[in-house]
């Protein structure tokens, strides 16, 4: 029996999950879990990639103590990267919530208007997109001696196997990959004056890039949402039969720190309506992921950390259900991206200040459900299709109250699958690569 290791790292935690086929089913066992989070350093938000690598190796040891591992792969959040000077890591490794791109964004758009960027890449505007981060590094002189830039999971796998790789699905998150050629767009690189040697050919999920202590190192869909979509066991296309042609699946929400809401499409949609509604086209495993970022569990995770860090989630959700607080906020408003105090951000966005913990969380959950409603309506307009179902995976899928609010707001049948969809997709890609 062959065993495979998925290392799935999110913005708040990471986990090592071993998977294998048994009786025609994919079985899994979590063997290691560790905390993650941004650190403050010299007024900036940064990642401790050395600590991440130490946890990656510790989890591999834990997996090998119980199983003989055939291959491993790592997925993380998108857009963030590590600069290298030869074999040397360039510090700090900035986190996407850091505000260093503020000055870079207008300068990028002076050189390439956003409309042209969207036409070329199909990637929604986010202030933390890789394109803006790299240009901020250019302005700061950090690219002068850089020989490589590797997205976070590719960097961690490089430190394991010694091979520098550039995986397609993760690269697409940054706003520099051509929607037509599925490679880095040389016109964008030249227009911004970025070092051309940084932008190597992209490799598809399933590529074996090297080995670590006898274990094959494989590229999964290293952007965690790409792997999560691969791990969703959809029952049927989820749309009306007369509209099913060209629609590959029902909409999904990968519900974690961010809520990624989208649907599989055969090719990118880079039209004016998609740009105006800020939809993204990210790489999938043989398909396009037409989706958009919604602020997600970040809102409630920060509220809990500030207001009631020791209160179990079950009690928090029950108090939210019992609350009658009526106001909502725009869950995607910039003030919620990285506020010094999340509760204060809610206070500032509301006409009436919440009086109880339940009020804050009810407001957050209802606001999220309404943002899902808006996104579904945009999705149906832009794709010209009507969907009956909505699949939700990830940590947010465990929240029955939010699922019920989402079903009421969207009018869709919500199929909540509280499974490790990202790890399942990661494992699935490894198994298919090995086969």
Task: Please provide a written account of the structure.
This protein has 435 residues and is an alpha+beta fold. It folds into two domains: 3-222, ATPase, nucleotide binding domain (Nucleotidyltransferase, domain 5); 235-420, ATPase, nucleotide binding domain (Nucleotidyltransferase, domain 5). 37% of the residues lie in helices and 22% in strands. It contains 15 helices and 18 strands. It has helices at residues 49-66, 104-111, 114-121, 130-140, 152-161, 168-172, 186-192, 224-230, 272-276, 298-307, 313-322, 342-349, 357-383, 400-410, 421-434, and strands at residues 3-9, 13-22, 25-35, 39-41, 44-47, 69-75, 81-85, 88-90, 93-94, 148-151, 208-212, 215-218, 252-255, 259-265, 280-283, 288-294, 389-393, 413-417. Strands 3-2-1-6-12-11 form a six-stranded mixed sheet. Helix 1 (49-66) crosses helix 5 (152-161), helix 10 (298-307) runs antiparallel to helix 13 and helix 11 crosses helix 13 (357-383). The longest helix is centred in the last third of the chain and has 27 residues, at 357-383. The two termini are 13 Å apart. The model is unreliable at 236-248 (pLDDT under 50).
């Amino acid at each position: 029996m062959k065993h495979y290791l998925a290392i799935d790292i999110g913005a708040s935690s990471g986990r090592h999950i071993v998977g294998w086929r048994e009786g025609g089913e994919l079985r899994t066992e979590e063997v290691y879990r560790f905390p993650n989070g941004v650190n403050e350093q010299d007024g900036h938000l940064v990642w401790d990639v050395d600590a991440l690598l130490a946890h990656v190796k510790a989890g591999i040891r834990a997996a090998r103590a119980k199983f003989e591992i055939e291959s491993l792969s790592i997925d993380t959040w998108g857009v963030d990267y590590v600069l290298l000077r030869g074999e040397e890591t360039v510090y700090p490794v900035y986190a996407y919530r850091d505000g260093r791109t503020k000055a870079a964004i207008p300068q990028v758009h002076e050189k390439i208007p956003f409309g042209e960027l969207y036409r070329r890449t199909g990637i929604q505007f986010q202030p933390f997109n890789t394109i803006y981060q790299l240009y901020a590094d250019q302005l700061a002189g950090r690219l002068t001696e850089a020989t490589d830039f590797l997205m976070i999971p590719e960097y961690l796998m490089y430190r394991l196997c010694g091979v520098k790789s550039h995986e397609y699905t993760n690269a697409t998150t940054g706003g520099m990959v051509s929607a037509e050629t599925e490679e880095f767009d040389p016109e964008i690189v030249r227009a911004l004056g970025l070092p051309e040697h940084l932008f190597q050919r992209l490799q598809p999920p399933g590529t074996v890039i090297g080995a670590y202590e006898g274990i094959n190192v494989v590229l999964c869909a290293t952007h965690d949402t790409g792997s999560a979509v691969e791990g969703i066991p959809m029952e049927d296309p989820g749309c009306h039969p007369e509209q099913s042609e060209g629609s590959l699946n029902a909409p999904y929400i990968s519900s974690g720190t961010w809520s990624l809401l989208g649907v599989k499409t055969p090719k990118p949609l880079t039209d004016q309506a998609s740009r105006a509604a800020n939809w993204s086209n990210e790489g999938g495993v043989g398909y396009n992921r037409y989706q958009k970022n919604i602020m997600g569990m970040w809102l409630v995770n920060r509220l809990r950390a500030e207001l009631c860090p020791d209160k179990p989630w079950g009690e928090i959700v029950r108090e939210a259900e019992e609350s009658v607080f009526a106001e909502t906020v725009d869950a995607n408003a910039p003030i919620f991206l990285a506020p010094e105090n999340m509760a204060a951000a809610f206070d500032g966005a509301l006409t009436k200040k919440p009086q109880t913990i339940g009020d804050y969380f009810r407001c957050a959950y209802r606001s999220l459900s309404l943002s899902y409603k808006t996104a579904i309506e945009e999705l149906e307009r832009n794709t010209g299709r009507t969907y009956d179902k909505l699949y939700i995976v990830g940590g947010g899928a465990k929240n029955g109250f939010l699922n019920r609010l989402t079903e009421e707001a969207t009018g869709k049948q919500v199929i909540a699958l509280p499974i490790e969809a990202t790890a399942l997709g990661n494992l699935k890609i490894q198994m298919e690569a090995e086969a």
